[in-house]
Amino acid sequence: MPHLLHIDSSPRNDRSHTRRLTADFVRTWRESHPNGTVTYRDIGRNPLPHVTEEWIAAAFAQPDERSQAMLDALQLSDVLVDEILEADSIVAGIPFYNFGMPSGFKAYIIKLCV
Prior knowledge:
By secondary structure, the protein is α/β, with parallel strands linked by helices.
């Protein structure tokens, strides 16, 4: 069964062009894949925590040397990576402000890089 990961990163609500575009895409995708699954992650309205010293220590420690606190720090990263791996397709709404993406999307990408 096809699986789509839908990511919105705009902090704007009803006036967001990227949210409208991704919603239109998902609607069309669902019509083409009636038995498909969609996982939705809204990092614009529910921002991820930014990188902390604890997360960095955990990310750069050897897996067999990670303490329980380090594993806890990486738990969200593990969930995000699993979402990516389970998806057959990804649609990401990423607005650009002054030629850059929102910091929330940057935090999302960093959390994937463990």
